[in-house]
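pinging the channel bc i need a second pair of eyes. not urgent but kinda urgent?? the chain im working w is below, pasted from the shared doc
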Amino acid sequence: MKVLISGGGTGGHLFPAMAIAEKLRENDPNTAILFVGAKGKIEMERVPKAGYNIKGLWISGIDRNLKSPKNLLFPFKLLTSLVKSFWIVLRFRPDIGIGVGGFASGPALFMARLLGTPILIQEQNSFPGITNKLLGKRADKVCVSYDGMQRFFGQTAIVRTGNPVRKVLQSPFLDRAAAASYFGLDPNKPVVFVFGGSLGARSVNKSLMQSVDYFRTNSDIQLIWQTGKVSFATCSKSELAKLENVQVRQFIDRMELAYSLSDVVVGRAGALTISELCLQQKASILVPLPSAAEDHQTKNAMALVEKNAAVLVKDKDLEEGLIPAIEDLLTNKKMRDSLIQNIASLGQKDASTKIVEEINDLLK
């Protein structure tokens, strides 16, 4: 079987795609998989590291500021990407095309459909991005994680599968000592893990940098801090980064080790992050991105908060609320254990399996 997988731009789109590819190869090692991504984005580095081939398109989204000069290039980028996608599909001749969101999936999946290839869309969020909205109406199937998605995809066949998570993150990594050694930390001291996705979260990073006195005074509390690509240069030069109990990374390849070592996790409330936290069974503080479409990250977070499975700190309250929330969880073991027990009951391990079953069913 030949499978074309397109999308990315952020880890939230890319890692579900890699989880699907991983499951396809697990079922049949002879499956030929070709990724199509956007040049300069995370997929162009991470996909080859995982052992898959990838083709890059010169494509990006439309700037929200419609007067931005960047938008002048969009028609040329789109036309170039459509032409390149046509030749990619014609040469590879996939049996199926899979779109996971992100602007690269638009030209690639459009051309695959135009050339007669069946396509399947995987939508992670409760509010799809513009690319998946457009492609979904042409798709043969759409795999989703939330109810009520018919309002976006019309009469397309919709299947609720959950969000696919890489195999290494489907169960907690139990060797805390090995994880501590990897990060150069003490396995016997508490660890807070803060991350904002592959690009980072500026407001979370800013709030942390202003909290240097807390981590300096409480030197037994260790911090793993993934800053993301955008803020790494600034964060790595901060006073907080100079503390011995703080480990700063731009990106963390071994997320299973960071999760396993952490007593408290702080992150955005993207759909993939929440899926991973449920499977990793972590006491979590969620900080929804306020600019997310239809405020869907707050809805994601509240689905857990209402089940006493996570703590919510609003982005506007970070400066005053983040450190008290962290301290509450570190000092209140009963509360921490309750969050862990409740979030563990929400995990879905079999999303990748369900999606691959839908792929096989579609090809039959």
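so The longest strand covers residues 32-38. and The radius of gyration is 21 Å. — does that match what u expected or am i reading it wrong
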